[in-house]
Design brief:
coiled coil; single chain; membrane; transmembrane; 4-stranded antiparallel sheet; about 400 residues; transmembrane helix; Beta-Lactamase; Immunoglobulin-like; alpha+beta; 18 strands
């Protein structure tokens, strides 16, 4: 498909795009008033511009522009839905061009889009594959009308029917479609915000428990001082008693002293019980703090797992070596374009016998993908089929 692709946006209020050419006058002005998400169709001579942009928050805007020469899109809603999915599912989830930071906000991965040409080329390959495979789906049609040279425009909302937008393309050289919601509705961001609130609440509980422990430690020290003073007082009383008693009353006084000592022993035992209770309370509070910390670590682990994206899960494979046909059964939680590679290892040599790269749009749910290898296989030999996503093996089989 013959088209030009542009990625553009505002990073902390500063505009940049890639590639940077005459289109900057059109694309830069679009970034100035994007509140949620917006699409624009612009005709300039025989060039049709299909532009989609979203507000990421914190003075950040991301946009995609497709330019067709002597062709226009009939299914406008489908092309803009695809561009929205390209931003929200492909770029954001894979951390290409834009990503989530530790606070759950969306930011640009690099200062300028041109700093990551590799990601730009990856996006262009995805778009080209989509347009080639779903040409009729988007309704790419030859542009037969003559440009009238007038600079007129029309603004509609995101609920406008596709048939109405097609008519407007014939009358106006600029059509703005204003959508009421954008990437701020993304479920992943809401989950991250929820986990951050949980972590904040757990930290608050931990601080409160630490304050209680500190108070109990101080109380424990006070009880020890009271016990020491009480024992000193008892000893002083006993000494004074023996100094001021007569020999005739020794036996009686000894009995009284014994009773007093028993009472003091009971008091000491009571204080020891109180200390034991306080120590048990401290141990219990420390256990609660430990549990709160474990919950915090679990919440942080959940946060990290959300930010790592697994595009699909391999549920089974089958192979026919005689026909060179290899079928993969997989499950995808969300719809989107999935890119992966299948390497075939010849076991008797340990070398890569052949490999095949695939970039295919998958609907959510379970589906099968069948690959056909042009190279013939020896059915008497064993081969290992490895399924790679990026630099990770996600599945495979031996045949």
């Amino acid at each position: 498909m013959n088209f030009n692709l542009y990625l553009f946006g505002k990073n902390k209020g500063t505009y940049n795009q890639y590639p940077d050419d005459y289109t900057s006058s059109i694309l830069a002005s679009l970034c100035s008033d994007v509140t949620s998400s917006k699409a624009i169709i612009v005709r300039n001579q025989n060039l049709m511009h299909y532009i989609y942009a979203e507000n990421l928050g914190n003075s950040n805007v991301i946009g995609v522009c497709l330019i067709f020469n002597k062709a226009y899109i009939k299914n406008v809603s489908k092309i803009f839905n695809y561009l929205r999915e390209l931003i929200e599912s492909t770029l954001l989830k894979q951390g290409k061009i834009i990503r989530y930071n530790n606070q759950g906000d969306i930011e640009f991965a690099t200062t300028n889009i041109s700093d990551d040409v590799k990601s730009f080329d990856y996006v262009k390959t995805l778009v080209n594959s989509k347009l080639d495979s779903d040409n009729n789906y988007f309704g790419v049609t030859e542009l037969t009308t003559t440009y009238n040279g007038l600079h007129n425009s029309e603004i509609v909302d995101g609920n406008t029917a596709n048939s109405e937008i097609i008519k407007l393309q014939q009358k106006f050289n600029k059509i703005t479609i204003d959508y009421k919601k954008g990437i701020e509705e993304d479920l992943t961001k809401k989950v991250i915000s929820g986990l951050q609130i949980q972590i904040y609440n757990l930290n608050t509980k931990i601080n409160n428990q630490n304050q209680k422990i500190s108070k109990l430690e101080k109380a424990k020290k006070q009880y020890k001082k009271v016990m020491f003073l009480f024992i000193v007082l008892l000893c002083s009383c006993g000494g004074l008693y023996f100094l001021y008693t007569t020999l005739d009353e020794t036996e009686k006084n000894l009995q009284n002293t014994t009773e007093r000592l028993n009472t003091a022993t009971d008091s000491i035992g009571s204080l020891n019980n109180i200390l034991t209770q306080k120590q048990n309370t401290i141990i219990s509070l420390k256990n609660e703090v430990r549990e709160e910390r474990l919950q915090k670590e679990a919440a942080q682990s959940s946060l990290e797992n959300i930010q790592s994206n697994c595009p699909f899960i391999i549920t089974g494979t089958s192979c026919s070596l005689s026909s060179g046909e290899y079928t993969i059964r997989c499950f995808s939680e969300k719809s989107g374009t999935r890119s992966f590679k299948v390497k075939v290892i010849e076991e008797k040599t340990g070398r890569v016998y052949t490999e095949k790269s695939v970039s295919e749009y998958m609907d959510s749910g379970t589906r099968s993908v069948t690959l056909y290898f042009n190279r013939s296989f020896n059915t008497s030999d064993w081969y290992t089929f490895e399924i790679w996503v990026g630099n990770k093996i996600v599945g495979g089989s031996r045949h």
